[in-house]
Amino acid sequence: MADSSAWIFFLSAVFATYVWRFTGVMISHRIEANHPIFEWFTCLAYGIIASLVARTLILPSGMLAEVPLWQRLTPMVFAFLGFYLLGKRLWVGIVFGETAFITLLWFGEISSL
Amino acid sequence: MRQSMKDLETNPKAVLKGIRNAFGVPALLLFSAMTGFGSMAQEQGLSLYISILSPVLIWGLPGQVVHVELYGLGAPLIAIVLGVAGANARFLPMTLSMMPVFDGAPHNRRWNYFLAQFISINTWAEMLNRGHQIKADRRMAYFLGFSLTCMIAGIIGVFNGYMLFESMPKMISLCLIFLVPIYFGLLMSNTIHPPFLLAFVSGCLLGPPMHLLTQEWGLLLSGVISGSLAFMLRNRLKGSGNIKEVNG
Fold first, then answer.
1. Is A51's CB within 8 Å of B226's CB?
2. For residues B99 and B113, what is the distance between their CA atoms, to the nearest angstrom?
3. Residue B35 sits in the same domain as residue B70
4. Same domain? B230 vs B139
C-alpha cells in the first residue's frame, strides 16, 4: 500500500535524525565535563547553523527562490541594523527585516507590471 | 515583578517560567516556520497525520523539508535516509555541546536520551545562553517547559499551513518563510564568545559555495571546516579579543 510505504519513509527520516541526538548524548556520557570537545562541537554547531542560514538566504528552495537575491539580502541588512543598533531585541530586528522585505516585494511587484 | 531565573525554587515554577519565556518570539517563529512546512507537506501529498507528527518526531526543519521534498519526488528510501541525516547532522554537535548544562542535575542521566529529542536551534541557544542562570536542578523543568511550548506552537503551525495552503496569500507565505533566516541569523550572530562568532561568520561565507559543490553534505562540510577553524584559533582569539586581526 502507498500508505504504509509513506510511514516507512517517514520513520526512516525520524531515525536518521534521532541517531545524531542519541550519539551526542552517548559521547557526552563517556567524556569528562570540561573536555575541550564540548567547545569544539559548539563551534561546529555554530558553523553548521550559519551555513544553513546562508544557504536558505542565498540559495533558497521553493517560493523564496522567486524573489531576487538583492531583495533577500537588503532586508537581512536592515534586520541586523535594527537588532544591533536598537538594544539587541529580536522582535525589533524581525520587524525591521520583514518591513524591508514586504516593502521591496511591494515595489518589485509594481515595477514588473 | 518578574521572577528572576535564579529564584526558581520548584519544578512547576521552572516549567512555567520556561513556558512564559518561549511564549513570544520563539513560539511565533516555530508557528511561522511550521506553517510554511505544513503548506509544503500538503503540496507534496503527505498525509495530515505524518505532517503533524513530523515536528514531534523529527523536530528539525531542514530534515523535515528534505523528507517531504524527496518523498514528493518519489526518491528511493536510501536517498531520504542520507538526505535527512545530512540535513539534520547538526544535532550531534548541538546535543553533545548542550549536555553539560544538565550535568549538575539530579535526574538519572538516561533521561538525557529523552531530553535530546527536544533540542532545536531555538531551545539549544536558549539553554546555552541562559541555562547557567538557572539552578542546576531546575534546568530540566525549564527546558521542558520552553521546548514543549515551542513544539506545540510548531504543531499548530503545521496544521494551520496544511489547512490553509490554498487560501494563503503569497505575500504572507513569503514573509513566514523569510522569518526563518532572519531569526536564526540574529540569534546565532548574537554571541559574545569570539570563536563562536568566527564559526558563525565563516560558516555563512562557506555555506553557499559548499552547498553548490555537494547538495547532501555541503552544510555539514562547511560547518565542520568553519567550526574546526574557529576552534583551532580560539586561543589567539581570546588573547587579542579582536576577531578582525585573525580573520582578515
1. yes
2. 10
3. yes
4. no
* Residue-range domain boundaries for chain A: 67-113
Contacts with B, A 93-112, CB within 8 Å: 93-94, 97-98, 101-102, 105
The span from the CA of A110 to the CA of A91, in Å, is 28
In whole angstroms, give the CA distance from residue B204 to residue B106: 38
- Does B215 lie in the same domain as B168? no
User: What is the span of the domain harbouring residue B220?
Assistant: 191-248
How many Cα neighbours within 13 Å face the side chain of B146? 26
Residue in A8, A13, A90 closest to B58 by CB = A13
Residue B89 predicted with pLDDT over 70: yes
Q: Does B131 touch chain A (CB under 8 A)?
A: no
Dig out the grid coordinates for B157 from the structure.
Answer: 503551525
* Averaged pLDDT, A35-42: 87
Angle between helix A2-30 and B77-87 (nearest 10): 40
pLDDT value of residue B247: 36
Q: Give B-chain residues touching A54 at CB under 8 angstroms.
A: 203-205, 207-208
Question: How many domains, in total, are found in chain B?
Answer: 2
- Domain co-membership, B78 together with B49: yes
Chain B residues with beta carbon closer than 8 angstroms to that of A108: none
Of A48, A76, A83, the CB nearest to B203: A48
Of A44, A75, A90, the CB nearest to B25: A90
Number of Cβ within 10 Å of residue B11's Cβ equals 15
ipTM of the shown complex:
0.86
Q: Is B79 left (phi over 0), alpha (psi -120 to 50) or beta?
A: alpha
Q: Whole-prediction pTM value?
A: 0.84
